[in-house]
Amino acid sequence: MTFLNILILAVIQGLAELLPVSSSAHVIMAEKILGLDPSAPDMTLLLVMLHTGTMFAVIVHFWKSWRDTYFSSGAAFKRNALHIILATMMTGVVGLTLQHIIKVFYAGNASTFEIESLFSNSKLIASGLVAAGILIIVSSRIKESHATNLSPFQSLTIGIVQGLCLPFRGFSRSGATISTALSLGVARKTAEEFSFALAVVLTPVVIIKEVVRVFHDNAATHASLTLSSILLPSLLGMVFSFIAGLLALRWLAGWLEHGKWHLFGGYCIFAACVVLWIG
Question: 153-181 burial by CB neighbour count: b if 16+ within 10 A, else e?
C-alpha cells in the first residue's frame, strides 16, 4: 500500500464519514478503483485507524457545544446521558436482530457467515444510498423546529434508525439519524450534536470489533503484522482522516444551518447511480 493510497483513503474516509453520504460506500468504491483488497489485514487495520481519526475529529469539533449543552449542569448531564443510553440500546437491539435475521434467511444460518461479506455488494450499497438520500430530502422539507430537548420517544426512534444503518453499507448513519431527528421536530443544531454524540459512543465498539477481526484473521492465516508495514501507515492515515474530518464537520454545519441539507440527499442518489455503474 503506497503513501498515495493511504492519503486518498484517509481523505475519503474523513470527509465521507462525517458527511451524510456514507463513508463505507465511498471507501469500498475507492478500494475497488485502486485495486486494493478490503479484507486484507493491513486494509482492515487501516480502516479501523481511519475511524479513530474521525472520532477524535468529532470530539474536537463538538467539545465546546457539548460542554455548554451536555455538561452545563448535573441535571443536564443526566438527562442527555439517558437519551444517549436509550438510543444506543435500541441501536444494539435492532442492529443485532437484523444481523441475525440476515444470517438465518440469507446465509442459511451458516456458522462462518460474517455480515462484512455483504459490504461490497454494489446493489445493497446503492439501495442504502438511495434510502438515505430520500430521507435527507424529505426531512429538509419539514419546517425547522426550535425544540432543543429530546423526548425519550425521539431518542428511541433515532436509535432504531441508527440500528437499521449498521448492517447496510450506503445507508448513511449520520444522514439517517440527523434526518430522523429533524423529522421528529428536533432543532437542527441539537439533531447534529446528538447524532455525533451517538457516533462517539458507537465508534469505540466498532473499532474494538474490527481490531479483534484483524488479529483473528492474522492468527488464522499465520500472517505477521509488523510495525513498519501495517501500524505506521495506519497511524499516518489516522492523522489525515482527523484533518479531513474537521473540514467535513465545518462543511456539514454550514450546509445544515443554512438550508442546504437537501443537497446531501441529491448527492446520495447521484452516488448510488455511480456505484451501480462502477459495479
Answer: ebbbbbbbbbbbbbbbbbbbbbbbbbbbb
